[in-house]
Automatic annotation (TrEMBL):
Belongs to the AB hydrolase superfamily. Residues 44-164 form the AB hydrolase-1 domain. This is AB hydrolase-1 domain-containing protein. One of its GO terms (cellular component) is membrane. GO terms for molecular function: hydrolase activity. PANTHER family: MONOACYLGLYCEROL LIPASE, SERINE HYDROLASE-LIKE PROTEIN DDB_G0286239. Keywords: Hydrolase. InterPro entries: AB_hydrolase_1, AB_hydrolase_fold, AB_hydrolase_sf. Pfam families: Abhydrolase_1. It comes from Perca flavescens.
Length: 328
């Protein structure tokens, strides 16, 4: 056990060497945590991780991106080191969007870019459509920006989510707070995410575990596993997408979502969303790799992201004063 905890600390020291500081934003139920890279007055870029991950997902990528930017990667509520939502509360995309609004308000950012992986990309898409004047560029890493649900399935999904919450609230604390050795936690995360490299697993566990008596526990809130009861249709997704004013770069992984959502009904939704990006002159590219290619093999996506930020952000005049870029 002692050796396992030493491994956690050693990995933390390696991955944190590029980080400028730790982020902490007070919220009504606790705090949202994160990490910050780059100069104080660099062009602001918000980085949003995927479901069940944490902001460590950007540890490998950000050091390869333009140094002129200020990167703030956030642990979304219920993930990483951020507080869990209050008892009885669901996790939903609108709630995550509200969390982003709280973070950028605390940072005093009036104009910024977003890099979002998977679920984080969906949060980025919704935020960019609700607050188009605040976002100048969006990078979607193996994400479509929106995740539509067939209208015929919505009631069933909502009911499933509510029933799952009822059952969750009946669980004993022992079942909610399972203790592992560090080695068993590694095995569990690798089994649940077979596309993650072992190195990537260790990176995610830096913020994904907490030391407790007898071992370690996963920090994420088990309620994130419940069905998301807030759904939107394809038509609603396309309407929201049409409100985005930012430049968008969609980077899909060959063995990522395009492979996972390959059924005809699923392809109907994803193809419509991707074509709508193309019709608005946004970029859609595919790279070799899997769903976590940005973490497993960051060099496969870093040149694309860097060129996009250079072209769409860094060559454009800043829209806010240095005093507005960050309070950190």
């Amino acid at each position: 056990m002692l050796q396992a905890l030493k491994s956690v600390r050693h990995l933390q020291s390696i991955a944190m060497k590029h980080a400028v500081s730790e982020l902490c934003v007070p919220v009504p139920w606790g705090e949202l945590r994160g990490k910050v890279w780059g100069p104080d007055h660099g062009r602001p870029v918000l980085c949003l991780h995927g479901w069940a991950d944490n902001c460590g997902t950007f540890n490998s990528l950000i050091p390869l991106l333009p140094k002129e930017c200020r990167y703030v990667a956030v642990d979304l509520a219920g993930h990483g080191l951020s507080s869990h939502r209050s008892p009885g509360v669901f996790y939903s995309f609108p709630a995550y969007v509200m969390d982003v609004r709280r973070v950028v308000d605390a940072l005093q950012w009036s104009k910024f870019s977003i890099i979002g992986h998977s679920m984080g990309g969906n949060v980025a898409g919704m935020f960019s459509s609700l607050y188009p004047e605040m976002v100048d560029a969006v990078v979607l890493l193996d994400s479509y920006g929106f995740f539509p649900t067939d209208k015929k399935e919505m009631l069933k999904v909502m009911r499933q989510g509510m029933d799952q919450m009822v059952q969750f609230e009946k669980m004993t604390e022992d079942k909610k707070r399972r203790v592992y050795t560090y080695e068993n936690a590694v095995e569990r995360l690798m089994a649940a995410n077979p596309t993650l490299s072992e190195r990537s697993v260790h990176i995610l566990l830096e913020r994904g575990l907490v030391q407790v008596e007898g071992g370690v526990m996963f920090t994420r809130d088990l309620r994130i596993n419940l069905k998301n009861i807030t759904r939107i249709s394809l038509e609603q997704s396309l309407e929201l997408q049409s409100g985005i004013q930012a430049s968008v770069l969609v980077i899909l992984a060959e063995d990522g979502f395009e492979k996972m959502f390959s059924e005809p009904e699923q392809k109907k939704f994803t193809s419509a969303i991707l074509q709508a990006y193309r019709d608005r002159n946004h970029a859609v590219v595919t790279v070799p790799g899997d769903h976590h290619v940005h973490l497993n093999d960051p060099k496969a996506v870093a040149p694309l992201v860097s060129d996009f930020l250079q072209t769409k952000v860094l060559t454009q005049p800043a829209r806010q004063t240095a005093e507005q870029t960050s309070k950190l």
